[in-house]
Each structure stands twice: as C-alpha cells, then as structure tokens.
Amino acid sequence: MKRLLSTLCLMSLALLNWAQHETCAHDIVLQRMAEKSPQFMGAMQAQLAHSVKGARAAQNKSNTVYQIPVVFHVVYNTPEQNLPDEVFENQIEILTQDYRRLNSNASETRAIFANVAADAEIEFVLASTDPQGNPTNGIVRVETEETGFDLDLFSTDITLDEVKFTESGGADSWGNEYLNIWVCNIEDTGFGQILGFAYPPNGAANWEGFFDFIDEDVDGVVVHYTAVGSNNPQADDDGVAFNNGGRTLTHEVGHFLGLRHIWGDAFFNGCTTDDGIADTPDAANGANYNCDFSLDECTDDELPNMIENYMDYNQDDCINMFTAEQVAVMRFNLENLRPELIDGQFVNVNETVSIQNELNLFPNPARSFLRISSNINLKSQTYMIRDLSGRAVAQGNFDSSQAEVPLNLHAGYYVLELTEVKMRKAFIVE
Prior knowledge:
Oligomer: single chain
Helix content: 10-25%
Shape: globular
CATH topology of the largest domain: Collagenase (Catalytic Domain)
CATH class of the largest domain: Alpha Beta
C-alpha cells in the first residue's frame, strides 16, 4: 500500500476551518505532512512557485481526441450504496461534456476568463473489455462487510486505499490501462465529509516531492457514493444538495491527470503560493462552496478568483471550465505519464514507457543543466527530451553513471526519456 513521504500527524487549526465543507482529500494529506515537517511547507511552496508556468498552451485544436476507458468498482455495504447502472452511465456523460467543454453551463464562464477556457479533447467511455479480454459493461459490483472506508487521521498510510483490495473488503484494480474509480461509503472524518481522492501521475513535475512512487494497484480515484452522477437516487444521503451535479469526479480526474487546486494547496495564504498554472489567477484558498463571483482575494494580479474552475471548491452548478494551460498539462501527462490509457491513440511517442522511481532529476525546476541519477547504470544509455507536444527537442548519450545534461530550452514543461530501459520523468525549465 502506498505510504506517504513522511510520518503524518494531527491537523492544524487551518484544517479545522477548511473541513467544515465537503471536499477532496488532498488538503488533508498535504497539511498533515506540513505539520510534521516544517521544511515540507517551504519546499512545497518553492516547487509550486516554479512548476509549470512555462507550459503555454495554444488555443487551437490538437485534432487528437483521446478516449479513456473507465471501470467503476462499486463497493457497497447496503443496497442504497449499490447504485444503478444509469448513474454511472450518466457520470460518464458528465465527464465527457466537462472535458470537451460541452457542458450546459459553459456559456456562464465570465467574459474575463472566456479567452482561456478550453476544450481538453478528452472523452470517457465505460470499459467494454476486462483485463482478461472478456466483455464487460465497465461496472464491477462487490458487496463488502465494511460499513465504510475512511482516511485515518492518525495513520501513516492512506487508509482509504483499503477499498482497492479484496483482502481488505474492497475490489482489486484492473491495472493502468483503465481509469479505475472506486465508489464506496467514505466515512466522515469527524472534521467533515471527504467526497473523493485521486493520485496524480508518477513523475508529474508539479507534484514532485509530495508522494513517493505510486503503485499501480492503488492508482486511480475514490469517490463517495452520494457524489456520483446527476441522477443519483442517494444524492441527498450526505445532507447537502450542491454536490449533486457529478462534478466531484470532474475535479478528481483533474488530479488524476496532474492538476492541483487552483490556490496552490496553500495552507494559510494562497496569494503567495501557486498551482503552477499561469492562466489561473491567484486565490487565497478554495471558494469553499460559496458561489460568490465577487471574490477577489489577491489584488496584485488584477483578476478576480476563478471560482468557475473545476479545480476550485465550489457548488457543482457554479464550476464550468478548465483553462488552456490546465488542458496542456493534462494532455502532456496523459500522453507521457499515463500512455497506457490511450494505447494506440497516441502518435507522438512510438512505444509505451513506464515510470520508475529509480530515475531522479535535479535541480527541478532547472535552468542551464539537469543532473540525472539512477540505480541503473546510465553509462552509454541514450536519452531524449520531449516538449509539451511530444516533439523531441534534445537527445544524446550518457558517458558516466551520474550524468549532467546541458539545457538550451525555452521555459516550459518537458519529459526526459531513457529510450533503452523505457524510463521517463517530467521536469520544468524556468
């Protein structure tokens, strides 16, 4: 099971304030790490300040629409938690509409942000074939004796991962060729109801240092059963109505594809941190489900809060957009860090490449050079550097076991690929 980078501890007062609202679990994980290690916060803010600001997305279409196969693992203890098929079919439609900017409220994006709102050209389909090649409807149902699954605030593990294993009352992953989504009863933490949690891609540059290598058997998304779809008969079981539009999974899949919260997951003041995306304005913190279009917490950027962004915390009917640069980062990560999901659809890279935690790049962000170290012998290995579009921009051979690569690249988001051993990792040039 995936273990956090460092031992975790109790919540801060900031978390107590935050947790009055239902949301995703990333804040819990990051705040616990910061409470334990004072150095973590500084490292996190420094990383985010430089992360993907160089990733500039063109507004034109890419002409490549990717389809991601989805499997829902429905882990239920009561009949009410065993949602009908039409809820998951509806959720797939919502995901596709939101990522293609075909959502019915797309026209509600304010004029000041309309020029950066973008179609991700990513669609979602229920898996039609299981890992053994058998026909499927993409919905797996597992009855469990567990009344719910929780994020234990006192554990050093992400205990919510227990839903991902049959041995702990859950359902096993179908592997990284699918977007695995576990639907279950996520128990109230006592500080608030968590609606979902997702792991980012291994090697995603704007998550560098926050998680160790994420195992394939836990990779994916967990979502509370009340927050699936817009036609969920159990939607009001959690006592609130503003999360009944199916947008929880739009948000969590954004994390799965490498996006951070738009306020940079700041613990105290998001105006001094960043999500690493240049076309999302600074915000002090999440909008916290207040659909308040007058919010303008960070006056130095001359833009109001982008509360309509899917990576904010807000009511489902108020969020309606990804930005062009968010799209660029998601597509980059999909093509380079999650290529198994689009096998046969991606033409820029000739072979599927796996991420391994043995590959280390530093400094990251980089400027004039990049040092590469690994527990494999790098001597005589061939490397290639690709840009955001997948185009090769540099290549060469290493002549030592710890190599230094000179960089003559524009600011941006890149991936270094070791072509012979099929390893790759993203990095940033500032």
